[in-house]
Design brief:
The chain is mainly α. It folds into two domains: about 60 residues, Winged helix-like DNA-binding domain superfamily/Winged helix DNA-binding domain (Arc Repressor Mutant, subunit A); about 140 residues, GntR ligand-binding domain-like (Four Helix Bundle (Hemerythrin (Met), subunit A)), CATH 1.20.120. It is about 75% helix and about 5% strand. Strands 1-2 form a two-stranded antiparallel sheet. Strand 1 and strand 2 form a beta hairpin. Helix 4 packs antiparallel against helix 10 and helix 5 packs antiparallel against helix 9. The longest helix has 24 residues.
C-alpha cells in the first residue's frame, strides 16, 4: 500500500512532468488536497519534498509555484555533476579490466546506441534525455556510494530540464553523442589520466549554453 504522502508526491511530480502546471501560476495546497481527496498534511509533506528537489518554490501564505531556473542553479548543478561524474569516470577507468567494469561498459554501449538511433531518426529530445540520464546514472551507481546516488537524484529534475534546453540547440544532440563516445572510450581503455578532463569538457559545453539562454 502506497502511503498518502507518496501518493501526493507522485501526483504532483506527474503534473509537473506532464507540463500540466504553469510557471506563472500560484497553486493552493488546500485546493489540490481536495482534488486528491486527502488532508493537507500529506500534500504539504509532498510539497516540501519537491522544494528540496528543485521542482517548486513555496510562496508564503499563498501556496507554491514551479521553480524558475536561475544562473545560480545552472552553476551549482554543473559543479555537482562535474565533481561526482569526474570522480566516478576516473574510478571506472582504473578498473576497466574487471568484470564489473566490463558489465557497465556493455550497458553504456547499449544506451549510446539508443541515443544515436534517436539522433539519426526522430531527434526526440524527450527520448534522448531519458537515455542520456540512464547513461550518467549508471556511471554514478557503479561506485556503490549511496550518498553519491542520493545527491545525483536530488538534482535530477534540474539536470533533465537543463539538458532538454541545451539539446534544443543546433547540433547539440550530435555533439553530445560524440562526447559520450569520448568518455566511454577513455573509460574502456583505462585512460584514467585523461577521462577526468574529457568528462569536465562534457559538462562545460552545455553549462555555457544554459547560461547564455538564461
Amino acid at each position: 500500500m502506497i502511503s498518502l504522502n507518496e501518493q501526493a508526491y507522485n501526483h504532483l511530480k506527474n503534473l509537473i512532468a506532464n507540463q500540466e502546471l504553469s510557471y506563472n501560476k500560484i497553486y493552493s495546497e488546500t485546493k489540490l488536497s481536495r482534488e486528491l481527496g486527502i488532508s493537507r498534511t500529506p500534500l504539504r509533506d509532498a510539497v516540501h519534498r519537491l522544494v528540496q528537489e528543485g521542482y517548486i518554490d513555496i510562496i508564503p501564505s499563498k501556496g507554491f509555484q514551479l521553480h524558475q531556473l536561475t544562473k545560480k542553479d545552472v552553476i551549482e548543478t554543473f559543479q555537482v555533476r562535474s565533481a561526482l561524474e569526474g570522480y566516478c569516470t576516473v574510478e571506472i577507468a582504473k578498473s576497466a579490466s574487471t568484470v564489473k567494469a566490463g558489465k557497465l561498459l556493455g550497458e553504456l554501449a547499449q544506451l549510446m546506441a539508443h541515443m544515436e538511433q534517436i539522433m539519426a531518426t526522430t531527434h526526440s529530445i524527450e527520448e534522448f534525455v531519458e537515455y542520456d540520464f540512464q547513461f550518467h546514472l549508471k556511471i554514478i551507481q557503479y561506485i556503490g556510494n549511496g550518498e553519491f546516488s542520493s545527491i545525483f537524484a536530488s538534482y535530477m529534475y534540474r539536470m533533465q530540464r537543463l539538458a532538454a534546453l541545451s539539446l534544443a540547440h543546433k547540433n547539440r544532440m550530435e555533439n553530445t553523442c560524440g562526447e559520450h563516445r569520448a568518455i566511454y572510450q577513455a573509460m574502456a581503455t583505462g585512460d584514467a589520466g585523461h577521462v577526468y578532463e574529457i568528462t569536465l569538457r562534457h559538462m562545460s559545453t552545455p553549462r555555457g549554453i544554459n547560461l547564455e539562454d538564461l
